[in-house]
Design a protein that fits this description.
Strand content of chain A: 25-35%
Order of helices and strands of chain B: HHHHHHHHHHHHHHH
CATH superfamily of the largest domain in chain A: P-loop containing nucleotide triphosphate hydrolases
Number of strands of chain A: 21
Helix content of chain B: over 70%
CATH class of the largest domain in chain A: Alpha Beta
CATH architecture of the largest domain in chain B: Orthogonal Bundle
CATH class of the largest domain in chain B: Mainly Alpha
Strand content of chain B: under 5%
Distance between the termini of chain A: 38 Å
Strand order of the largest sheet of chain A: 6-7-8-3-9-10
Distance between the termini of chain B: 68 Å
Largest sheet of chain B: none
CATH superfamily of the largest domain in chain B: MetI-like
Number of helices of chain A: 9
Shape of chain A: elongated
Order of helices and strands of chain A: EEEHEEEHHHEHEHEEHHEEEHEEEEEEEE
CATH topology of the largest domain in chain A: Rossmann fold
Radius of gyration of chain B: 29 Å
Largest sheet of chain A: 6 strands, mixed
Oligomer: heterodimer
Number of strands of chain B: 0
Largest interface: A-B, 27 and 19 residues
């Protein structure tokens, strides 16, 4: 187990900037998830940590030792690939043993290590099968076994769950989390799935266009996104971004926005109120769960507004109500038995302590 | 109410007739329609007939001839196994079989090895790969006659390599494999390998390009060097290509004829005789059609021994427990 530091790392292919200087420090035993849309450079960064891609500028260090010039095999890392990348001509046992064999680990020790990993991942019955005889989930386990058996300093995961079906993906996600808790390993995990990022990470690095947008714990990323991109990317349904105007009021500044029935205003909390001035245009960021109906006990004492509900989507656990606020479609997540009906007006309470404001021009949080 | 019901019935029955082809046929199909239905069979029929007569028919006829008293001209007089006994009593036939063994072993082995090496080298993302690939593949476009003639000149002591070295001043240089009865068979191997290795290379290159790059990355992280990656992972993954190239080169070796005719003419003496040249000589110059036919039958059986297991393994339904 070890720490990993990425200092101003850049990657260029000719004139094309893939990574524009990324700084991340990963502590011992941390689970860092790199998340972002396709082409944001997250996989490139992972390959650079692994040593499969050159580093154009900057430095990567594992346990304080610069590894820029080290061959992948000398970095003491293990990687799990999206396609599993199992060696098709070898049995599961040989696949897991291959790395140790290449490092000259004696056979009895190899057998013992394979036995331990096979037990941990419950792949003992299939040790003598070929990868082509395994299901997707089993291959995934073998690929993880191949990484675990070497007991490396840093584990790298490159979208390991994206080839699995939805049910298996959730199962394997839980298993990876359990493994991390049991082993206390340092892990860097790449995914484009924000739910995977939220559930697995101890810290998340959100990336876009080769730049780090925000680095923080899942809670920080979720409640205090740095900008509208992070706000929209993390969370499902996404954070509502409602164009609004700050105005002065009796009880302090308010945000006003249009609704289908005219307009509405909500008082800003003291913390936010200090950072805006009347007349300023803002984007009001509200997570769907900030809304509640008046029947909900959480709604007591919260500012309210009335609005026509356009559509409801019961998901079983919640009721999603679609509203148009400030001219944009807005989702409110309510109790499953909330008394709202499509086409009818309803009163919503809003937890403004969880609201965030963004500057509409730059997209940065105010 | 009644009217609308009957109308509905009429509509549905009309619709059904239009929808199903059997309904359409019941309505007296035109001649064009009937020809159209049969067109694929009509187009394939001549080829089928020609193949039936000129391939399978002549195989049957040759097999029959190998049991007759045919000499200069085919004869239908049954003679049982006598021609086969004469064939196996002929020392030249044994020489030809021995030569075939040497030639096939070296030709298949070296072509596969050369082809694989070329493919591995070409797969290293080198410059001008397209041009090089074409250059290596070109010999396959030549007929064996051209290859044989070219190599006859190159290997000829008075014209080719030996003369070149003499002209350079190396007067003692000797390279006389073509006229040496012990070595002439290796000249066939050289020319054959030169012609076929480019083709084998193309097959290996296609397979190498199909390998998932992540497997190679995984092996790098596992600590395997380039040589180990090839020896332990990539080359074992090429097993189907080895099989295909063995089949293709194997049947080419067994039916080798034109290369021998152009390069050595079967000589010196009978040093480079192969079953195919033996068959030709017996049938068309020595007036022993029955013995020639017998040797042809043996060759056919040899080719079958190579091809049939391959076809069996390729054509049987997949999905067994084999990896």
């Amino acid at each position: 187990m070890a720490s990993l530091s990425i200092r101003n790392v850049q990657k260029r292919y000719g004139a094309l900037d893939i990574l524009k200087g990324v700084d991340i420090d990963v502590g011992d035993g941390e689970f860092l998830v790199l998340v972002g849309p396709s082409g944001c450079g997250k996989s490139t960064l992972l390959n650079m940590i692994a040593g499969l891609d050159d580093i154009s500028a900057g430095e990567i260090a594992i346990d304080g030792r610069r590894v820029n010039e080290l061959h992948p095999k000398d970095r003491d890392i293990a990687m799990v690939f999206q396609s599993y990348a199992l060696y098709p001509n070898m049995s599961v046992r040989q696949n897991i043993a291959f790395g140790m064999e290449m490092r000259g680990v004696p056979k009895p020790e190899r057998e013992r290590a394979i036995g331990q990993v096979a037990k941990l991942l419950q792949i003992e019955p299939m040790l003598d099968r070929k990868p082509s005889q395994l299901s997707g989930g089993q291959r995934q386990r073998v690929a993880m076994g191949r990484a675990l058996v070497r007991n490396p300093k840093v584990f790298l995961f490159d979208e390991p769950l994206s080839n699995l079906d939805a049910k298996l993906r959730v199962e394997m996600r839980t298993e990876i989390k359990k493994l991390h808790q049991r082993l206390g390993a340092t892990i860097v995990y790449v995914t484009h799935d924000q739910i995977e990022a939220m559930t697995l990470a101890t810290r998340i690095a959100v990336m876009r266009g080769g730049e780090l947008q925000q680095l923080g714990t899942p809670h920080e990323i979720y409640t205090r996104p740095n900008n509208v991109f992070v706000a929209g990317f993390m969370g499902s349904p996404a954070m509502n971004l409602i164009p609004a105007l700050v105005s002065g009021g009796d009880g302090g500044p308010m945000v006003r926005f249009s609704t289908l029935d005219g307009g509405a205003g909500l008082a800003l909390g003291a913390d936010l109120a200090r950072r805006v001035r009347p007349g300023q245009e803002v984007l009001l960021g509200l997570r769907p769960e900030c809304f509640s109906d008046l029947g909900d006990e959480h709604s007591r004492g919260l500012p309210t507004f009335a609005c026509t509900v356009e559509l409801t989507e019961p998901t079983g656990a919640d009721l999603l109500a679609m509203l148009t606020l400030g001219g944009v479609e807005t989702v409110a997540r309510l109790r499953p038995d909330a008394a709202v009906h499509p086409g009818a007006s309803a009163v919503f309470a809003v937890d403004m302590t969880k609201a965030v404001l963004f500057d509409p021009a730059s997209g940065v949080r105010i | 109410m009644k009217a609308s019901l009957s109308m509905k019935r009429a509509e549905t029955s009309d619709g059904e007739r239009g929808a199903t082809p059997t309904g359409a046929r019941a309505r007296r199909p035109s001649l064009i329609d009937r020809i159209g239905d049969q067109l694929p069979k009509i187009v394939v029929a001549p080829t089928f007939l020609i193949t039936l007569v000129f391939v399978y028919g002549f195989i049957a006829w040759t097999t029959y001839l190998s049991f007759t008293r045919s000499t200069m001209r085919p004869s239908m007089v049954w003679e049982g196994l006598r021609p086969h006994e004469r064939l196996w009593g002929n020392p030249v036939w044994h020489t030809a079989l021995g030569n075939l063994g040497t030639y096939a072993l070296l030709y298949i082995g070296l072509s596969t090895l050369m082809g694989m090496l070329l493919a591995i080298l070409l797969d290293q993302r080198i410059r001008a790969e397209g041009a090089l690939r074409t250059i290596y593949l070109y010999p396959m476009a030549l007929s064996f006659i051209v290859t044989g003639t070219a190599w006859k000149w190159i290997l000829n002591p008075g014209l080719g390599i030996e003369k070149l070295m003499h002209d350079f001043g190396f007067q003692d240089f000797q390279f006389q494999w073509l006229v040496d009865p012990d070595m002439a068979i290796y000249c066939l191997v050289i020319a054959g390998v030169w012609q076929s290795s480019g083709f084998v290379m193309a097959m290996f290159l296609a397979a190498l390009r199909g390998i998932d790059g992540e497997i190679i990355k995984a092996a790098q992280i596992d600590g395997a060097g380039l040589l180990r990656i090839y020896a332990r992972i990539i080359i074992p993954m090429m097993r189907p290509v080895f099989l295909s190239s063995f089949i293709i080169l194997g049947h080419l070796a067994i039916k080798s004829f034109d290369l021998v005719v152009a390069l050595t003419g079967g000589g010196p003496g009978n040093a480079t005789a192969l079953p195919a040249t033996f068959m030709y000589e017996m049938t068309f110059t020595r007036n022993q059609v029955a013995v020639g036919a017998a040797s042809a039958v043996v060759m056919l059986m040899t080719v079958c021994a190579v091809i049939v297991p391959y076809l069996y393994s390729e054509l049987r339904p997949k999905g067994g427990a084999h990896g």
